[in-house]
Amino acid sequence: MVKAIRVHELGGPEVLKWEDEEIGEPKDGMEAVGMVTAVGPGVTGRMAGDLVAYAGYPMGAYAEDWWSGSLLCQWANALGATVIGTVSTKEKAAQAKEDGCHHVILYKEEDFVALVNEITSGKGVEVVYDSVGKDTFEGSLKCLKLCGHMMSFGSSSGAPDPVPLSSALLVKSLSLTSPNMIHYTSTRDELLQTALEVFTNVAAGVLRVRVNHTYPLSQAAQAHTDLESRKTSGSVVLIPDGS
């Protein structure tokens, strides 16, 4: 028997239960880190005892609420982009500056559309990366220049309201995507290439991974509550009890 977090019903963090569980046969998973305890027949490239991990979310240049945004802005800065970061708190603003943002906007206190317009001398930005969702989605589109591109990769403030294509996108020939990391690393070669690029940049000091919060696995419900309350920044890590 082992201890595990189990979910028996729909709901919020309160439905995460710390229970005894029989160890069954392993199944496919994702976004994990740990040690390989067993491998099946025909498996190559991995053996019991190997430390393994999946790559997280890196990339390029604008609106986020500070978790993956930390890596995104560091990388964008290293690539030579002028980075404008939007954050929800003054604490996250300080971290955003450390992560290479040239301009930081508190979107709950300031008109970030007007400020982006001022910073770019009325031209708008080439690209927006938005993981906040409802609170910033419409404004993020307004921040784009003609033929600009927006990537929506999260919704920490809730799902965005529907936007009419004609007035929101067609008016400036904008493009909008909502990528899923799994689809970009669906083959072994794609995963290895992505991991190589990420960890090469980590080793070179281009990317600094911030683990600002750790919780025992038994407190997973509290970790999720803090995440939903947006009290965290950087990476949040659950550590198995007794480790």
Automatic annotation (TrEMBL):
Record domain Enoyl reductase (ER): where:
11-238
Q: Does the keyword rRNA-binding apply?
A: no
UniProtKB keywords: NADP, Oxidoreductase
**Where is it found, in Gene Ontology cellular component terms?**
cytosol
Q: Enumerate the GO terms in the molecular function aspect.
A: mRNA 3'-UTR AU-rich region binding; NADPH binding; quinone reductase (NADPH) activity
Query: Which PANTHER family does the entry link to?
Result: QUINONE OXIDOREDUCTASE PIG3-RELATED, QUINONE OXIDOREDUCTASE-RELATED
Provide the protein name. 2-haloacrylate reductase
Which organism does this record belong to? Sesamum radiatum
